[in-house]
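Methods — Computational structure assignment.
A single polypeptide chain was analysed. Its primary sequence is given first, followed by the predicted tertiary structure written as structure tokens.
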Amino acid sequence: MSEDISDGTEDVVGVLTTRIEAHFGMSMDQLKAAVAASPTAHRDASAFVAWHTLLVHSQTVLDRAEAELLAALETQPGEGVDDPTMALVRRVEQAVTVRDQWAVAVRRILAPHALGPDEARAETSTLAGERPGPAVPTTPAPAPPATVPAAAVQRRGGLR
């Protein structure tokens, strides 16, 4: 599967759409219609449609950002790039990252040994910077050393 999207020059959405269609044995339009008619009938199909929609949306955002960047670059005099154009560069980079995260998530749930849609969604959320809880497990403060009398600890408001 990694050969499908190896060099970044292929149509990522097209490749993954083809794989989803092969997985379900129907076109995306048919799959979307089936999910719309009965969203709870096949949980995986509903998840794939939702994830595919997010992937397509992220590709649209990327295409728009790239078009704006190209237009800005065409108006740049000389070799230098101004600050607004650099902001567009960063926007394109962010759009690529988001699109790639959705693509990785879809690829993972398409793999026969992959995580299920819910587990992949949780992993993708983590990749996107969302955290379900503390980054580091927290534990209660350790008890004061045995050599310090408990009364002294209470008077000072605890050890620091």
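Note: The radius of gyration is 25 Å.
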